[in-house]
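User: Here's a chain of 355 residues. Predict its fold as tokens.
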Amino acid sequence: MKILSVVGARPQFIKCAPVSKELKKDHQDILLHTGQHYDYEMSKLFFDELNIPEPDYNLNVGSGSHGKQTGKILIELEKVLLKEKPDFVLVYGDTNSTLAGVLGSVKLHIPVGHVEAGLRSFDKSMPEEINRVLSDHASNILFVPTKTAVENLKKEGITKEVYNTGDVMYDALIHNIKIAEKKSDILSEFGLGKKKYFLATVHRPSSTDSKRDLSNILDAFSGINETVIFPAHPRTVKFMKKHSLEKKVRKNVVITKPVGYIDFLYLEKNAKKIITDSGGVQKEAYIFRIPCITLRNNTEWVETVKDGWNILVGSDKEKIKNACVNFKPEKKQGDYFGKGDASQKIRKILGGYYL
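Assistant: Prediction complete.
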């Protein structure tokens, strides 16, 4: 079977790597990179580190408004679909690349599988939530990571071709943390000791676009008696400059360029606490048993909150600072994300799709 895999953003490269490796055992896997993330630290570095072959196609859409970016992907993707005529298309996660991949395919009557389906934050002000819901309702097969995701889909009337495979990100984590432990020198580069620093990531519009919210977050980082390692997303740097906030950041906050996935995993595993607005980082923190402070008022990874290893603080400066000092998870964790064989399950399910 000829399968076209559509990726475009940093988390999708990570999710795609173990799945693509499995697919190649039985199928022809064509990789299409939309170019949604396009600079070296956010894109090519990940292909290099994860040993993902160079994409067969790169649409080079770059940044832009949601409508412009999604529209450009649709226009260019359709050309590839008409040329390649794949039997099946795989999309990942909740980005504009995901939605465009689904829409472009179903309009041409090409079946689509959505990996990481069924997640819900129930906050329609988040662009990612709209992408999730629309992608799930238009896709032919839904590969979901948790029981909660299955229930979310059931409540929306989606019960057919729903497969709880476990989480492909967990597959990637199990494999790549072993590499990180052997190869990463990032702690030495920053002069860090294990469990002697906080790790922070900020990139969502809800965190960056408002001067007040971004200022609150940075003030909170600066107001704690901890070293905060802060690999800054290009979007965040842009708004820090726009709002003239760079000078407000104190010396305990170490702002760096985005680091590679292998180095980032090692930073995650050895952090004292993690502060983030990223969905994937919340989950990785949970798996590594690192207390996670989430700069959002909701999360699609509700299991991490229910188990007491993740706390939602939004952009409230005092809540962030209080969590940094006092949040100390003690509960036993559940087994929510599978056993590290999600990619194998996806390959087997696709293998039987046309039988």
